[in-house]
Every structure is written in structure tokens, then in C-alpha cells.
Amino acid sequence: MPPKAKAARKAKGPAKRKLAEEFPPGEILTDTAKKSWKLGTPIGQGGFGLLYLASDNTSKAVGVDAPYVIKVEPSDNGPLFSELKFYMRAAKPELIGAWIKSRKLKYLGVPKYWGSGLHEKGGKRYRFMVMDRFGTDLQKKFEEGGKKFPRKLVLQLGLRLLDILEYIHDHEYVHADIKASNLLLSHKNPNQVYLVDYGLAYRYSPEGVSKEYREDPKRCHDGTIEFTSIDAHHGVSPSRRGDLEILGYCMTQWLCSRLPWEDKLQDPVYVRDSKIRCRNNVREFMKSCFTTGHEPEEVIKFMEEVKTLGYTDKPDYTKLRSILQQGLKSIGATDDDKLDFSVSLSGAGPSSAKRKKAAEKEASNDKMDGSPAKKRRLPQKKEENGVKKTSVKKSSPKKRSTSTGTRAPRTRGRPKTTA
Q1: What is the mean pLDDT of the chain?
Q2: Is residue 308 helix, strand or coil?
Q3: Is the pLDDT of residue 399 over 50?
Q4: Which of 139, 210, 212, 230 could be joined to 181 by an S-S link, Cβ 3.0–4.6 Å?
């Protein structure tokens, strides 16, 4: 009988946080700029906060067509406070508007910050933030389409995300948790997509001074384990190259349905080593994901370009865009700003048998592994602003894999903070 793999250290879970009390429709909140906002019905609950429909017209009831949502948490909770720092520094409407104009973009998928403040009720204090209202998330679309997106759509999403990442990187932040469940469609325009949930957003370059590469065993494997960067697996603070690496994994999964290491997410060392093998030989990695001849050349080139980046290097966003645009051209498509989620039978397709064989081969070569494959997690059901539109009492926080097991996530299973 093989020796047991060294057990992961017991997770110190996050400090116990209080759930937000549900406010009745019609509650008036006043932000730091003295602007009043009226709450409608709650549309979802995450780990520690509630998300409500909201309006800046306090003279009438908030209808189902409300243009805003407000996230509310007890003031002594941490997640919303962390996100607020990003929004207040980098997501003000005037900043986003100026960027769109200077770059001649049609829109930018960064949620706008409309206000925040503290609210007292029943002797308790609550923190709140006002955000745009969004529609469904891409994870739901991914699952509805049989866990596969068409190639044109994937390349268009990659282009939109490059616009988003260039903006937030230029404003000293990295996102660190890019994934389909954090990508929401506009409430009014289903052809626009927004990157939300900045709970893991990190200010990598405060005042223009980049953080140094430093490994910290206590922070190993932070993030959403199937997508998190190799740097994060080593406990290094998030970086620009890390965001782009994560995007590469996302595009690959969206095209082939499943990443090779997804069967063993309970073993973060195995996942990390699998990603290192991917980085060392991107083309061979792609062969384990796709049927022969259907490997997406543009994604291979994208990942090859990203792996040349140093920890503090500024990415060449223009070059990365041209790689994806060339991919569109190679399949006879153009970026027409229309997001079509219907999967065509032609084009690249995944090879389940090949992926299974590759996973088994990696497992046999991995001396660290001595445990069975982890069962696939149930899909998350989210409808609006990244939250399930059901009774708030039925929702419960999800868990994310980390180096020490699982813990309540900062992003998964709670309301998207950028409605």
C-alpha cells in the first residue's frame, strides 16, 4: 500500500461573520455624498450580504425594472470593505468614461461605482454599496450550452477581457479571480459582458511602485483553484501576468469543456504541478484538451506570449489582442459585438477519452498523489448580478478549494459586488 500523501494543514477558516438582516422594501439609505437610495425587494443572498433592487427615486416604490442594486453587509464584515477600496479608487463613472473615450471603445466591462455608506437600524450598523444592475452570469450560460462555448464567442470574450484588464491594471489593480461566474451580461444589453466581484482584487502597484516577488506558504493556492495562477499556487501576490494566465485557462476550458486537472481539485499540489507542465509545453497541453487537429492555435500563441512575462512586466495588450483577432480571422469570423452562445457542431471539439487518458497519465507520474479523484462539484445557479433569484433563506455560501482544504469563498456563492 503506497504511503499516504502528507495531509494538508487544517484550514484556519475566516473569522465568523454575521449574516445581514433583511430590510423591508422602502428602506431609505443615504450614502456619503448625501444621496438617498430606496431599497426594493431582495434578489439574493451570498455568504454574508444581501442584494436588493434599488432606485434613486425615493418618491415611489422600487419596481422590477430598477436600474440599480445595493449590496448590504454588517459593518464589521470584511468582504464588501475590501471591494469598496477598489471601486472607490478605480471604478468611478468619470474615470471609466474618460478611458472609453481615450481608447475609442464602445463600452468597458468594469462596473461603475455609484455610492456607498453606512446605515443604522435597530442599533446595528451596516455597510452598503450601490452598483449597476446586471443579468445572468456566464457560468449559467456555459452549463446550459453543455459546458462549451463556440470559438468565436470565446475569442470575443477574450478581447473584452483584455480591455477590462488593461484598464484595471493601468489603475494599479489586478483582479485575480477571473472565471465565468464572475462575468455577467448587461441587464439591458445581452451583448455586453462585465467582470465583477473584486473581493480578491489586489493593488499590485501602489503609487506606481510594483510589489516584489515573494513566496508566502500561508497564502499558497489562494483563489479559485482550477483557474488560479502558478504564482498564487506558490503564495505570491497576484500580478498582471497572473490575470492573463487565468484568462488563458478560462478560454481553454470554455472551448474544450474541462481542464485536465479538474478531476483532482482536492489536491492543490497536483493542480499546481499540472499547470507548470502546461506552461512548460503549451502545445502538448492543448493536445490533451482537444481532438487532433482542433487545437486552437491562437490560444496556444496567447499562452506562449503570457509565459514570457516576468512578475513585474507590463503585458503587451495590443499584441495579445492581435493574436485573438487573428484567431477570429482564421475561422472566417469578425468581432461584430454580438455574443452568440449557441454551440456549432463544426470547429474545435474536446476529446473526453484523450483528456481522461492524459489525466490518468499525469496521476501515475505524480508521486504526491495517493487519493481518489474528487467528485465534480454541482453547478452554481445564478440568475442576476451573480446571485440565484430565489428566497434569500434558501441560499447558502459555497466553498472554494485552497491549500488547506476548503473554506468559505470571497467570491463564489455570494452576491456579485458590481451589480
Answers
A1: 83
A2: coil
A3: no
A4: 139
Question: Which runs of E-coded beta strand occur in 25-179?
Answer: 28-30, 36-45, 50-55, 68-74, 113-121, 124-132, 134-137, 173-174
pLDDT the model gives residue 44: 79
Interatomic CA distance for residues 363 and 164, integer angstroms: 36
**What local confidence, expressed as pLDDT, does residue 82 receive?**
79
- Rounded to a whole number, what is the distance in angstroms from the first to the last CA of the chain? 52
- From the list 177, 222, 273, 369, the catalytic residue is 177
Cα–Cα dist 173/86, whole Å: 8
In sequence order, the β-bridge partners of residue 162 are: none
Q: Cβ of 265: how many Cβ atoms within 10 Å? A: 21
Return d(Cα 383, Cα 65) in angstroms, integer.
Answer: 15
Q: Bridge partners of 120?
A: 125
The reply to whether 76 belongs to the active site is no
**How many Cβ atoms from other residues are within 10 Å of residue 376's Cβ?**
10
Angle in degrees, CA 138, 140, 146, rounded to 5: 105
**Confidence grade of residue 292 (pLDDT, cut at 50, 70, 90):** confident
Q: Is 180 helix (H, G, I), strand (E, B) or coil?
A: helix
DSSP letter for 282, please.
H
- Predicted local confidence at residue 47, as pLDDT: 53
SS3 (DSSP) at 38: strand
- Per-residue pLDDT of 303-313, as tens digits, reads 999 999 999 99
Alpha carbon 91 to chain centroid, angstroms? 17
Place of cell 445595493: 70
On whether the CB atoms of residues 408 and 399 are closer than 8 A, the answer is yes
Residue 68 DSSP SS3: strand
**Strand 134-137 versus strand 193-195 pairing type:** unpaired
The Cα 194–Cα 393 span in angstroms is 27
CA nearest to 194, candidates 132, 283, 282: 132
Is the whole-model pTM more than 0.85? Answer: no
C-alpha cell at 205: 502597484
Residues 166-183: pLDDT tens digits? 999 999 999 999 999 999
Rounded Cα distance, 108 and 93, in Å: 11
